[in-house]
Design goal:
It comes from Sphingobacterium griseoflavum. This is Tryptophan--tRNA ligase. By secondary structure, the protein is mainly alpha-helical. Helix content is 56%, strand content 7%. The chain has 2 domains: 205 residues, HUPs (Rossmann fold); 95 residues, Orthogonal Bundle (Tyrosyl-Transfer RNA Synthetase), CATH 1.10.240.10. Strand 4, helix 9 and strand 5 form a beta-alpha-beta unit. The radius of gyration is 23 Å and the shape is elongated. The model has no long low-confidence stretch (mean pLDDT 95). The structure holds tryptophan (TRP).
């Protein structure tokens, strides 16, 4: 039997190149080998109180972009978390043996409390319980997440094992973080330091849905410097980042051409960025047009999420039935 992969996708916001070349291309490969559940974590996003309008819009956007980027609804189960309310029931059960102390100690929780001291709600505290339920609901054993989610996975194992011990069953399996490819490409941002990511500022990100002119503008404004002054001078971070991006979107010949210009101090960053921007526009063109196409096809989007909801519900209902039985919740009528 194929192992089950579960991954929650944040419902806030659009995909950027970092998501695309990093996680997403692995999702696309994973769906060939595993039984994959990819869901839009709209319930999780309620901790920050999005407006109803924003919530609906961003959820749809994310579905469209994941489909455009290659998630295949015939191979994977792609669904919206709130379409499968069984997760909320499981969340209630699991909350009964998640302890205040361990929830308060979670790093992500402490970070959020520090960042938003006025919004320390119970949903935020129990966020890891809901996340555990997302995984346990489908008996996921592999979870493709980054380092920042390791602790949540450890909590998922704790909650599952604790349930097993409490009811003396061997019901929940342990889930582990899963790096699909050992050569994860790092996509730097345009702001001169670090990875591409919204937390590093909007200017660092090129979105898959950005129009060609927006991409050109962003790249032309990318942080650089006044240029190398010595032959074969090591590259400062901002410049190395632009070369790393070029490595991903341009032809090898283009890359080595600009490497050569850099090493001989004859590079002109204006030309370099222009080329980078054009190659970025080209590289993203197929996804951008798919986003347009899918976004305009309301009927297709509806069909996909309905199918996803049905597939996910089937697995969820089975789990809830079994859990109720284990806990001893029985209908008297
Ligand atoms: N917490 C994850 C994040 O911030 C999102 C998420 C929610 C998730 N539920 C999940 C990831 C279940 C994997 C499995 O990125």
């Amino acid at each position: 039997m194929k192992e089950t992969v579960v991954s929650g996708i944040r419902s806030t916001g659009k995909l950027h190149l970092g998501n695309y070349y990093g996680a997403l291309r692995n999702f696309v490969k994973m769906q060939e080998e595993y039984n994959c559940f990819f869901f839009i974590a709209d319930l999780h996003s309620l901790t920050t109180h999005p407006t109803p309008g924003d919530l609906g819009r961003t959820v749809r956007e994310v579905v469209v972009e994941y489909l455009a980027a290659g998630i295949d609804p015939e191979k994977s189960t792609i669904y919206i978390q709130s379409d499968v309310p069984e997760v909320a029931e499981l969340y209630l059960y699991m909350n009964m043996n998640a302890y205040l102390g361990e929830l308060e100690r979670a790093t992500a929780f402490k970070d959020k409390v520090r960042a938003n001291p006025d919004n320390v709600n119970a949903g935020l505290l129990t966020y890891p319980v809901l996340m555990a339920c997302d995984i346990l609901l489908h008996h996921g054993t592999k979870v493709p997440v980054g380092k920042d989610q390791e602790q949540h996975l450890e909590m998922t194992r704790t909650f599952g094992n604790r349930f097993n011990r409490l009811y003396q069953v061997d019901y929940f399996k342990e889930a582990f973080a899963f790096t699909y490819s050992d050569k994860l490409v790092k996509i730097p941002g345009l702001d001169g330091n670090g990875k591409m990511g919204k937390s590093n500022g909007e200017a660092s990100c090129v979105y898959l849905s950005d129009a060609p002119d927006v991409i050109r503008k962003k790249v032309m404004r990318a942080v650089s410097d006044s240029g190398p002054t010595e032959i074969n001078q090591p590259k400062p971070e901002a410049i190395q980042n632009l070369f790393d991006l070029m490595k991903v979107v341009s032809k090898p010949d283009t890359l080595s051409h600009f490497e050569e210009l850099y090493n001989t101090c004859t590079i002109r960053y204006g030309d370099f960025k222009k080329q980078l921007a054009e190659d970025m526009v080209l590289a993203t063109d197929p996804v951008r047009s798919r986003i347009q196409e899918i976004s305009n096809d309301q009927e297709y989007v509806q069909r996909v999420v309905k199918m996803g909801a049905e597939k996910a519900s089937e697995s969820a209902r089975k789990t809830i039935r079994e859990i109720r039985d284990i806990i001893g919740i029985k209908r008297l009528y």
